[in-house]
Design a protein that fits this description.
single chain; 356 residues; alpha+beta; 42% helix; two-stranded antiparallel sheet; six-stranded mixed sheet
Length: 356
């Protein structure tokens, strides 16, 4: 484990801090209370993640009898506590139980594993069959889900603003993709490399959902976290790759702050330099590329992003331009001077990111 370029070690949550910050300031304690407790819990888990980085994480060995190319899933129940991983409730190959949250977590881990294996020939998130662990029913009214560097954790939501975090497959794919990035490019979680880190998780989270549903680029909704917002919230999801800045516009949550182009790039010291905000720019570039190419987005557009993420040339402190330039190089190497190369350059040009 590294310290990620000297910045905060990666502790990745699906709900951005700016959303919880606003919610925590609401006058209604029913809304503010869970948000405040979630922020406090996130801060504690972030500190624990930092200590893990210093002392080292325990090695994770394959389960006994595990076969290469087969998932090794274990689901735990925290019983609304915070001790991880909790009580084991379902192992690999076990039949579904009566707890729908457990079953969704198990299925989501499987769908993510299958996508990486069958599309990119990657055996689990580390490429070497890493067991996939997840804990559900974490804490009480916990408004988040996270990857802590070793496992997935899901809250049940407060029922007022957020629902059960296992409801959205792309959220599961998003968080596990942070693990893929951790084991490959290991992007610094701050500023533009941090926004790329978040964007890569959004991209592959969306592709995992599209693959599971058999959708083409034009059929996909390109929303991240659709189904997580409670009925009282005016919004569709946490983020929109198709139209960043439009996912929600709510009296309680405020308006989605994501920019779609560099013209509206947000400079801030909060949220690790706006990693959940400015990720809208590379997100939109990927959407533009995928829809320009058509067909299944995981095949050509997704392959190029995967090539860059795992190719060994992406620096930990890569800027948007660095990443964009590598996607152009990947397109030329994989497809030559074909339509894919032109489409990649056009997508980045449309969002205002130059390719050197």
């Amino acid at each position: 484990m590294t310290t990620y370029g000297g910045f905060q070690p990666v502790f990745c949550t699906i709900v951005p801090p700016h959303v919880l910050d606003r919610l925590a300031q609401h006058a209604d304690p029913v809304l503010a209370g869970p948000a405040r407790r979630t922020l406090q819990r996130d801060a504690l888990e972030r500190t624990r993640r930092g200590l893990t980085t210093v002392v080292g994480a325990p090695a994770v060995a394959p389960l006994a009898g595990a076969e290469p190319g087969k998932p090794q899933r274990t689901i735990y129940d925290a019983r609304h506590g915070t001790d991880l991983p909790g009580r084991k409730v379902r192992g690999e190959g076990d039949e579904p139980g009566q707890d729908a949250t457990v079953n969704r977590a198990y299925a989501g881990l499987g769908a993510t594993f299958e996508h990486y294996l069958k599309v990119y020939w990657r055996d689990s998130i580390d490429g070497a069959g890493l067991p996939l662990d997840a804990t559900v029913h974490y804490d009480r009214e916990y408004n988040n889900a996270f990857w802590n560097g070793e496992q997935m954790v899901f809250g049940d939501g407060d029922g007022e603003i957020f629902l059960d975090f296992t409801l959205a497959l792309d959220v599961i794919g998003h968080e596990l993709t942070h693990g893929v990035t951790q084991h490959t490019a290991n992007l610094t979680y701050y500023g533009q490399p941090g926004a790329l880190n978040e964007s890569l998780s959004d991209v592959f989270g969306s592709l995992i959902k599209q693959y599971a549903q058999g959708q083409s680029a034009t059929e996909a909704d390109w929303l991240i976290g659709a189904g997580l917002l409670a009925p009282r919230v005016t919004g569709e999801a946490l983020r929109s790759m198709k139209a960043p800045g439009t996912a929600y516009d709510d009296d309680v949550l405020g308006k989605d702050p994501q920019p779609a182009t560099m013209d509206d790039y947000v400079r801030t010291g909060r949220d690790n330099g706006g990693v959940h905000i400015n990720s809208g720019i590379p997100n939109h570039a990927f959407y533009l590329l995928a829809t320009e190419l058509g067909g299944h987005a995981w095949e050509r557009a997704g392959q190029l992003w995967y090539d860059v993420l795992t190719g060994g040339e992406l620096a930990q402190d890569a800027s948007f331009t660095d990443f964009a330039t590598l996607t152009v190089k990947a397109a030329r190497e994989r497809y030559g001077d074909a339509a894919e190369l032109e489409a990649v350059g056009k997508a980045w040009e449309q969002v205002g990111v130059p390719t050197a």
